[in-house]
Amino acid sequence: MRNVTGARCVRCGRVYPAEPGITTCECGGILDIEYDYDYIKTKLTKDILAGRRTTSMWRYRELLPVEEGTPETPLRVGWSPLYEEPALAAKLGLRRLWVKDDGLNPTGSLKDRASAMAVAKAGETGAKVIACSSTGNAASSLAGNAAAAGLASYIFVPERAPKGKVAQLLTFGATVVSVQGDYEETFELSRQAIDRWGWYNRNAAVNPYLSEGKKTCSLEIMEQLGWQVPDYVAVSVGDGCTISGIWKGLKDLYAIGFIDHLPRLISVQAKGCCPINRAVEFEEDLRPMKEDTIADSIAVGVPRNPDKAIQAIRESGGLVANVTDQEIMDAQKLLGHSCGIFGEPAGVAAAAGVAKLCRDELLGENDSVVTIVTGNGLKDVANAIKFSGEPIRVPSDMDRLLQEFDRLDIHPER
Amino acid sequence: MRNVTGARCVRCGRVYPAEPGITTCECGGILDIEYDYDYIKTKLTKDILAGRRTTSMWRYRELLPVEEGTPETPLRVGWSPLYEEPALAAKLGLRRLWVKDDGLNPTGSLKDRASAMAVAKAGETGAKVIACSSTGNAASSLAGNAAAAGLASYIFVPERAPKGKVAQLLTFGATVVSVQGDYEETFELSRQAIDRWGWYNRNAAVNPYLSEGKKTCSLEIMEQLGWQVPDYVAVSVGDGCTISGIWKGLKDLYAIGFIDHLPRLISVQAKGCCPINRAVEFEEDLRPMKEDTIADSIAVGVPRNPDKAIQAIRESGGLVANVTDQEIMDAQKLLGHSCGIFGEPAGVAAAAGVAKLCRDELLGENDSVVTIVTGNGLKDVANAIKFSGEPIRVPSDMDRLLQEFDRLDIHPER
Asked: Using the beta-carbon criterion (under 8 Å), do A341 and B395 form an inter-chain contact?
């Protein structure tokens, strides 16, 4: 990889060669892939990018840690739409607002970007099997992307994992191990199995390549904005890997001169589980929290990647917002009603945070914001059912319909 | 619309001016939009198309029945991926096989193409409200596309409509009327309400513009194949609007000289509900059937658009295949395992039909086939749960995992 110089521990600073199979530093710290930006500048210009036909994350190949001969992964991951939403901006009192709908990725979440990268790197090592422990989007994205690439996947889930999510994994042909225990016990068994059989490891915050995949989301945002930097980029935060990936992409673009300054991050967590935001807000070390929120994809009480995330939020001069479940589900409706976008609870948490910051007047008419929807609402219909309200029930009778419209103060017009 | 000459009844041949609000012919027949292909040829060439950046159905504007000033609808509908699947082709014994994953549309189905068109035409009439009766993908796609465009939607569903689907409509801000009765009674109340308030009508097989939206799926397939015509295009068939739209797109491309011959269609229905295929196979008039299949999106016992569909299948020299629920769910797994694609039951029915025709040796090593996945598997997780099998259940204990792998004859390798 001519474009990559190594992998540096974010805790102790030690640098490792960027082998495809690297995991964490000896000190336990997470590694961060480092690039030769001078070299990349000779290979990638805005014009070259503008002429490129690839509409997937692989259009940013020069900024990705893969060998030149590594094939693009088969599923079309990335290049999700970025919608400008003037009506919603007006409602919230923002100058401009865009929504990036990453729920339209092949398996329905931003995690496809990380899993596609894992599949590419697994291919470089010659591995035929790739594994992780997860209940959610990491698992489904791994199972789908691995299947498409002809790799086997082994996925460890805690027994409480919802049946629908397990069914999706089984449909993708994954070998699913349901562990009678909690998430920690599940992770531990996956670790032992990965060690024993030498499977390629897609556990987040262990594999440093994953956030390099995720960063393509912010690369796209900036290209879709024509390299005009918004004031803020809002992301929902669980284990911290996504927001650090988003930040990495922005810094890459700054380093190669594609953008002239950096936006500020908005880190949104659930009020019932916000250890990263608490550490940022009170400038203290991270302490675990219990996981009390319906936004399961960001319910991470012991985040595995707090270092990079906290550093990113601080470095960007970012804002934090913690939102209640009710605020999250209000944001789900707000995005649905105003934009025709249906996100899962964790996926719309960032928008809930933006709305809250607007109410608190920390954001306002001078600000432009991009908010990322990280997962598709079809992933969690149960909560949508609970919060979306009820239809109007009538027999097939026009008079009764008129009565109901009248009672509910609905005035249909043409 | 310089590119459109009129709307002709497929039953009696009467031609109407192509007003935005036209519905069916006085004789009850369905209208078909007709184009001035000589004019279109002066405006659209393969080179022009190749240089176009729009990655949505609106890249084919010259072939669509909209006014020049009509804005593109906001959601990014279309330009779904077409994947070549050599491994699955080998498994089935086909020369070449591609899968078009239309489940990656904004609300998760091919119907987004029709709804986006309806929203565009509603805009031309100045309507502020758009309505339909549907339980499924037509409704969710209408609600999402209307919300994004700032239009109100009124959607009539029979009381048996699944709660999850209703929740998605409510999240998109639709006014949902749940009718205590069957689908016919629901349709009747929607018809009366649409008449009374003059709402824009998005009922399939009433509005002739809908299949013009759907045809963009085959326009894309051909462009993505570099205008090399496959032997067959396989589609799952319910009310008949989708397959007739697919055929229309192919004929358009032939008429403007972009392809030099037409592929044959494969019409796939559920064995428990196959009135269109029965009419084609036995060369008889369409007779209603009961609706006995889990593939709810194609469970249409009284199809509202049989004329165009039957004509399309016959004209193309097409094949028909009727598949059991088990064959449908086997195809769901086959696409999941082999391709990393998760389709809803109706969405994978076409693939089930292709697999069946391969088993019956009606398709084989000389044939190239495109099969369309019309809807996302996340739309119907309940059936995936029933058919996908069970995970391996163990405590967090390596020895027990080894025992289970041994018992199940699983041999993990690297």
From this structure: no
